[in-house]
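okkk here we go again. third time trying to get the zinc ion bound version out, last two times i messed up the smiles copy paste (missing a bracket lol). double checked this time i swear
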Amino acid sequence: MAVVNVTELLVQSALKDAYIGKGRLTCDCARCVEDIKAIALNHLPPHYVSTDQGVAYVKAQYIDPQLQSDVLRELAFAAQTVSSSPRHIEGS
Ligand SMILES: [Zn+2]
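finally!!
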């Protein structure tokens, strides 16, 4: 049994499907990708479910078109924010 934040799953998979390795990011190093994910998640409501099924099952069951479009909007905003001032340059 686990508690899963569906919003986080959607952010993670949208990042992977639409951004990472797609040439849409100024930089897709781990630091920038995590920053994008954090910014997006801070702007989105968490949506927790408890499950004893796999994560893939949860994702399939809870994909809400509204949440999905909110996720894409916030990811676009976060990608822009990180691209305009990537923090990896400071080397922390
Ligand atoms: Zn980077």
